[in-house]
Design goal:
The protein has 339 residues and is α+β, with helices and mostly antiparallel strands. The chain has three domains: 5-70, Uridine Diphospho-n-acetylenolpyruvylglucosamine Reductase, domain 2 (2-Layer Sandwich), CATH 3.30.43; 75-186, 2-Layer Sandwich (Uridine Diphospho-n-acetylenolpyruvylglucosamine Reductase, domain 3); 234-338, UDP-N-acetylenolpyruvoylglucosamine reductase, C-terminal domain (Uridine Diphospho-n-acetylenolpyruvylglucosamine Reductase, domain 1), CATH 3.90.78.10. The protein has nine helices and 20 strands. Strands 6-7-12-10-11 form a five-stranded antiparallel β-sheet. Strands 1-2-5-3 form a four-stranded mixed β-sheet. The longest helix has 19 residues, at 309-327. It starts with a strand and ends with a strand. It binds flavin-adenine dinucleotide (FAD) and uridine-diphosphate-2(N-acetylglucosaminyl) butyric acid.
């Protein structure tokens, strides 16, 4: 029996801790419940918002529609030669899946330890950290199409993954609900240690031959040292993407700002560290009313308590304008803005 609640506070359902209300709210625990929900004409036509862990959202207003919190659980595995296919329900907590894989000796997502949120949201922005993105191990996902009520399997090619991008954020935005994801992981080590901070921390700990658990622990340690814990201070991780610019513009910037932090981004383009750009504008650790940037990471906007979505959004606009005025580079928001 489906249970739909009315006028539900979303404060505990978004890691920014913004107090807004959903007109209607339902938790969905199975594919059958999803099909049942949309067999009811009233819910077929209403504005919907799919919610995982709410760790990449900024609510600006009350949500005047139906919020669907995805809770489908379950992890199953199939060994296939040197690889293992791991299928997880969309409502599994991402880091629980990482821990499960680390414990079972499945290699490939350990660099993505401690990223908040759900498995179902992981393909939406192709989550990434420490030199790894889910596109590297993504196999397929199963998604429910709202318009037809049919379940469709998406391959890696179908998903059109890019840096913090996928088809689900672009041409198919709002059309599908992901119900499960399959990852192809390895039974032997294939560590990605190219991110300097991991090697440095392993060296500090005197670890020469790291295990899967070592990598997961080191990544978690680095993350905790830089990023605010959403259970104590509201945030949604990086608020902006790291901008990718053409090499010609980069050369000009490098002359004017020799300390600029950058990485090659393929095909001659250059990715800039947005945190550095924001810090250079004097924003790092700044407190503006109830919002501000994190003291250890200027790319993270925070809720010091009682902030409204509008307040955070308006501060983010100030950052975009100031960075553009100083560097001629336009920052794009990475967090989903829910109006
Ligand atoms: P939500 O915030 O609930 O939703 C995000 C988007 O996905 C929304 O558009 C929503 O409608 C949609 N969505 C959610 N579930 C589904 C579904 N089942 N089907 C269809 N659409 C769905 N991200 C990184 O990539 N790398 C990081 O290192 C990283 N670090 C972070 C650190 C902190 C402290 C925080 C708070 C966030 C961080 N993030 C990072 C962002 C966040 O963890 C990811 O974007 C994560 O995938 C969001 O998952 P979620 O379940 O909370 O999604
Ligand atoms: N930097 C500064 N000042 C700052 C922050 C960063 O100068 O206040 C410079 C430093 O030189 C630092 C560099 O920027 O070395 C990169 O910083 P960091 O390693 O913290 O990574 P990031 O580029 O800021 C990205 C992701 C994170 C991910 C980390 C680790 C984006 C938008 N963000 O941050 O993802 O965890 O790399 O791989 O790509 C998220 O998406 O929410 C997120 C946290």
């Amino acid at each position: 029996m489906l249970h739909i609640s009315q006028n539900v506070s979303l404060k505990q359902y978004n890691t920014f801790g913004i107090e807004v209300f959903a007109k209607h709210f339902i938790e969905i625990n199975s594919r059958d419940e999803l099909t049942e929900l949309f067999s009811i004409p009233e819910w077929k036509t209403i504005k919907t918002l799919v919610l995982g862990g709410g760790s990449n959202m900024l609510f600006i207003n009350n949500f005047d529609g139906l919020v669907i919190k995805i809770n489908m659980k379950g992890i199953t595995t199939t060994i296939n030669g040197n690889a293992v296919l791991v299928e997880a329900g969309a409502g599994e907590v991402w880091n629980d899946l990482v821990n499960y894989c680390v414990e079972h000796g499945y290699f490939g997502i350990e660099n993505l330890s401690l990223i908040p949120g759900s498995v179902g949201a992981s393909p939406i922005q192709n989550i990434g950290a420490y030199g790894v993105e889910i596109k590297d191990t993504f196999h397929t996902c199963l998604a429910y199409e709202l318009e037809t009520g049919l379940f469709k399997t998406f391959t890696k090619e179908d998903c059109k993954f890019g840096y913090r991008e996928s088809v689900f954020k672009n041409e198919l935005k709002g059309n599908y609900i992901i119900v499960s994801v399959v990852f192809k992981l390895f039974l032997q080590p294939n560590f990605n240690l190219k991110y300097g901070a991991i090697e440095e921390e392993l060296a500090k700990r005197g670890i020469l031959n790291p295990t899967l658990k070592d990598i997961s622990q080191v990544v978690s340690y680095i993350r905790v040292s830089k990023l605010p814990d959403p259970t104590t201070i509201g945030n949604a991780g990086s608020f902006f993407k790291n901008p990718i610019i053409e090499a010609t513009l980069f050369e000009k910037l490098k002359l004017a700002f020799p300390g600029i932090v950058s990485y090659p981004a393929g095909t001659g383009d250059v990715k800039l560290a947005a945190g550095w750009l924001i810090e250079q504008c004097g924003f790092k650790g700044m407190v503006v009313g109830n919002t501000g940037t994190w003291k250890n990471q200027a790319l993270v906007l925070v809720n010091h308590g009682g902030a409204t979505g509008e307040e955070v959004f308006s501060f983010s606009s100030q950052i975009i304008d100031t960075v553009f005025a100083k560097f001629g580079v336009t920052l794009q928001r990475e967090v989903n803005i829910i109006v």
